[in-house]
Amino acid sequence: MKTAILALMLTLTSWITGQQQPRYAPDLSPPASKKALITGADQTEKYLPYLSGKRIGMVVNPSSQIGDKASVDSLKALGVNIVKIFGPEHGFRGDASNGAKVDDSVDPKTGIQVVSLYGKTGKPSPKDLSEVDLMIYDLQDVGARYYTYLATLHRVMEACAENDKELLILDRPNPNGYMVDGPVLDMKLKSGIGFHPVPIAHGMTVGEYAQMINGEGWLANGVKCRLKIITIANYKHSMPYTLPVHPSPNLNTQQSILLYPSLCLFEGTIISQGRGTYFPFTVLGNPDLKGQYGFSFTPVGIKGMSETPLFENQECFGLDLRNYDTQKMVKSKQINLSWLIEMYKAYPYKDRFFDFKQSKQIGNFDKLAGTTDLKEQIIAGKTEDEIRKSWEPKLNQFKKMRKQYLLYP
């Protein structure tokens, strides 16, 4: 009881003084193994008093939940004054297809103005923020560099710093938090699917990543964003975590989320990852692989997921990974390169494998890989071990840098 009271006093002191939450808060709780994991959003007692009397802006989507209800709806019902919603890729309600630009709107359920951060602009404007006292960021990330929510986080932090607004992050587990792997992004290849010099799998939560953006001076002109982070209770990076809500339309199963760091590389090739099916990012295929693989699938247009998918209405032959044992990756703590190597070898028209131009794909393989080397290494027939060795020493340097921003063991 005394321990619980002391922990509560420390939390209240932090809010009253307005100081940023320390990176390494003292652990006064019983062992995590004996307690349930609780997301930042679900710990309303830690931040509701801080929201009182403030005009709140929220960066949210369907993954932003308190219990089993949308966080916007829940907080509004609790009397929080939410004046503006900011929606990332796929929109606030999550019903826009991948890559589709989203317009500003008014949420019909709450009547709150929704500003799209995946439309005409990716960054909140000074006018948007002039009507806000405090911003809240609550998006479920999946731990992969190509996921566009990291670029959204950066832009929101930058806008808050430039307009002297504080950002409250409601932290959530990284379902691929056990893995730190892949080539570190060459910043010459910076894009919306690769915004920072990090590997493909960064092994951090959003709260940790935000501290890294600040600490490494990655915001424009070296500005710093004032952060408050509601940390996840009883969390470790090694913990398995099944997402209660799909983070985006095409990551609609736990299997797809765990395979995503490995399979998204195929977005820059002539191989379909199953967009246009109800099991995207769990299969791989191409019509030209007929006769080489027994498994097949046929992409079709699906509203809100992939409305004009690659190889629409064409039978694709390849790999079915829906029952692949993802524990193999958990044990190795590595992305899987063998599928990329295998399918390049199997595909009959080698000159088209990486150079296939198709707007329906995310596109440039080098931007996804974060390096021009990986494509050339696959073409040259390098082994997986040889490719992995080329990622050093940068990967090890990132791991060392990452440690100083971690909030969880």
Write a structural description:
The chain is of the alpha/beta class and 409 residues long. The protein has 14 helices and 12 strands. It folds into 2 domains: 29-243, 3-Layer(aba) Sandwich (Rossmann fold); 254-371, no CATH class. The chain has helices spanning 2-17, 48-51, 71-77, 126-130, 149-162, 206-215, 254-263, 327-332, 338-346, 350-353, 365-369, 373-379, 384-389, 394-403, and strands at 55-60, 65-66, 69-70, 81-87, 105-106, 113-116, 134-138, 166-170, 227-230, 283-286, 295-297, 316-320. The strands form 3 sheets. It has a 7-stranded mixed beta sheet with strand order 5-6-4-1-7-8-9, with helices on both faces. Strands 10-12-11 form a 3-stranded antiparallel beta sheet, with no helix packed on it. β2 (65-66) and β3 (69-70) form a beta hairpin. It starts with a helix and ends in a 6-residue tail after the last helix.
Write the layout of secondary structure elements.
Elements: H1 2-17, H2 48-51, E1 55-60, E2 65-66, E3 69-70, H3 71-77, E4 81-87, E5 105-106, E6 113-116, H4 126-130, E7 134-138, H5 149-162, E8 166-170, H6 206-215, E9 227-230, H7 254-263, E10 283-286, E11 295-297, E12 316-320, H8 327-332, H9 338-346, H10 350-353, H11 365-369, H12 373-379, H13 384-389, H14 394-403
Parallel strand pairs: 1-4, 1-7, 4-6, 7-8, 8-9
Antiparallel strand pairs: 2-3, 5-6, 10-12, 11-12
Note the main sheet.
Answer: 7 strands, mixed
* Low-confidence regions: 1-33
CATH class of the largest domain: Alpha Beta
Strand order across the biggest sheet?
5-6-4-1-7-8-9
Quote the average pLDDT: 89
The beta-strand count equals 12
Q: Percent range for helical residues?
A: 25-40%
